[in-house]
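Working notes for the structural subgroup meeting. M.R. asked for a predicted model of this chain before we commit to crystallization trials. I am recording the input and output together here so anyone reviewing the notebook later can reproduce the run.

Input as submitted:
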Amino acid sequence: MADSSTAFALSPDTDATALAGAAAVARGISRLFARNDIWALPEMPLVGGRRADLMGVDSRGKVVIVEIKVSRADLMGDGKWTDYLDHCDRFYWGLSPELDRQCLETGDFHPDRCGVIVADGYDAEILRPAPLLKLNPARRRMEVERLARCALRRRQVDLDPHCAPWGGEHSG
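Returned structure, recorded in token form:
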């Protein structure tokens, strides 16, 4: 996951340490997911202009989104995360091990709709499974197709950078 498409967009004042921490959490979660046949793409653009930190598909075709947080300020200041719920069947918070998770148990963070994963750069553990809140089948199909097209485009651009100007991650 160390390609150019994994630059995590936390907040404008995010420092290099936080970016490295977010990348480490993403790597640990991606390893956990891979062992469980869930394949995720970092920094996936969503309809409406948001970007999911990780978005993937499980072995049953369900869409999973993970919002990564490595600082309390970033976690408490995120007012946009509920927008992601309309794009997935399961939503997780992905947190670094040292981050206090207590606030995630309050109503503001909808613990009945969100799972919790704690991860470092080597591995991850699901502390609270995310409930399955099924997307409308047409919406799921659209999200899976967009995810597939984005993954294929990134792979093609990795193989041939001259293709980068064409299409774009928002097309399709």
